[in-house]
Amino acid sequence: MSLAISRRSLLLTAAGGTLAGFAAPMPSWAAGASASPTILTAGRRTLEVNGRAATVFGITQPDGTPGLYTEVGKPFLVTLRNDIGKETLVHWHGLTPPYQQDGVPGISGPPVAAGGTADYDFPLNFSGTFWMHSHQGLQEQALMSAPLIIRERKAVDRQEVVLLLHDFSFKSPAEIFASLRHATASMSGTSMDQTMGMAANQTMAMGGQGGSMPGMSGMSMGQTSGHAADAGPAGMALDLNDVVYDAFLANDRTLADPEVVRVEPRGRVLLRVINASAASNFQIDLGQVQAKLVAVDGRPVQPLTGSVFPVAIAQRLDLEFQLTSDQTVVPVLAGLEGERKRTGIVLATAHGQVPKLTELASNSVPPLNFIVEQTLRAAKPLTLKSADRVHRVDLTGSMAGYVWSLNGLTYGHDKPLMVAKGQRVELLMTNRTMMSHPMHLHGHPFQVVAFNGRRFAGAVRDTVLVPPMQSVTVAFDADNPGRWAFHCHNLYHMAAGMMTTVQYESF
Ligand SMILES: [Cu+2]
């Protein structure tokens, strides 16, 4: 591995000065170029949730705006300030920087020390809806995340609305993780070595029913580990939500007191949905509004019309629609899969009377599946080419102490997926568990090219939900040398070991 760092690479400074190994020439802005960096501060803030104060993280500009709004063609020119009093590092989810600027501790570089800063400078060659989040420990659960919007250069006559979704708990993320590990460790008597997910085992422990169990949705297993069960492939029980949350937030608010976004009568809207949850998949429901899904994960797709769209952990949706004259109040609802719980915002014209919305829907949202994914077609597909290298990646898990892994290996004991520059690479992911996994590759957009072996030219994106006991193949071009994280974006699965790296043979 080479540590050669180009002029446009990361300059990391800690309180004590420039870190060894990361001494880099000054980025272009520091050398007197006209543009100056946007300062993003990772800090703490107080939110009120369900009438209670909660201290959470945030990533904000000096004027308090969360995240970054920029324009294609401008460089990504950012100084990250760490004001949280301990180490952090922020990942620019979906962007394609040089790997040293990717924001993953231990893979791209060291974290930023308390009180320190890090500088970023790389080109932005595409527009779209992206996001940023801490990749340090479990900070993402405590809301260390924000929008990262790259607008098109041409002005478009439509109102941009960003919907950032979070799952929220008053418990600390460490406490949640400890409870998950404890809950499963104490149940692991009979199946230490099997590579199934947890729900099948838990279902047996709860009476041996293997089929669909309506009415079990939302039942709670102890304090933290609640498992909604539903019919899976061949009638097996699926495992949906490991964590029972205190609230689901849409732009930091619950549906009891939602954000109301004022829109023009008959206005055109571009709704950018970002699922910044740590561990929750949602279904977006626009009610009477027919929208066009025009991009997923910031990458354009052939438009798909509808009013209900799945959005898995870490994924994004760009939805375009025009309100009709009688659509003066439009709730944009996000329902938790397998549950009746929901959150959302409300679009309303100046005179639209916003009704009281209940946080529990009348029906539960079905588990996310692959039906919409299979119908998506990239607007700009990869060139047609056979794979130079195929990596088989089994998504695996074990009951023993909440362990999740890839090819049976947890991160740290993993075997990196090797690639060479210029190769077309395919990742054939087979989910051997009863829980879906939102799999995310850093630094490279990938195209979804097969589901259970059936080929199609699916969406180009950065995170794909692999359903339980199914297989999904993605393809990407190895054009960004370095060492890149590849992991499940369920934060607790990643923390439990469901992560590896894609590594170039030389870089
Ligand atoms: Cu997972």
* Binned strand content: 35-45%
- N-to-C span: 6 Å
Principal-axis shape equals: globular
CATH class of the largest domain: Mainly Beta
In CATH, the architecture of the largest domain is Sandwich
Helix count? Answer: 4
- What's the CATH H-level superfamily name of the largest domain? Cupredoxins -  blue copper proteins
Radius of gyration: 22 Å
Mean pLDDT: 86
Largest β-sheet summary: 7 strands, mixed
Low-confidence sequence ranges: 1-33, 188-232
Count of DSSP E strands? 35
Describe it for me?
The protein is mostly beta strands and 507 residues long. It has 3 domains: 11-155, Immunoglobulin-like, CATH 2.60.40.420; 247-368, Immunoglobulin-like; 389-504, Cupredoxins -  blue copper proteins (Immunoglobulin-like). It has 4 helices and 35 strands. The chain has helices at residues 173-185, 198-205, 371-375, 491-496; strands at residues 11-14, 17-18, 38-49, 52-60, 68-71, 75-82, 90-93, 117-123, 128-134, 145-151, 159-168, 220-221, 225-226, 247-250, 260-262, 268-275, 282-285, 291-296, 299-306, 308-311, 316-322, 329-336, 342-348, 389-398, 403-406, 417-419, 424-431, 437-441, 446-451, 454-455, 460-461, 463-466, 471-477, 483-488, 499-504. The strands form 7 sheets. Strands 24, 25, 27, 29, 30, 31 and 33 form a 7-stranded mixed beta sheet that branches. Strand 29 and strand 30 form a beta hairpin. It is globular, with a radius of gyration of 22 Å. Mean pLDDT is 86; it is low at 1-33 and 188-232. The site of copper (II) ion (CU) has 6 residues, from loops.
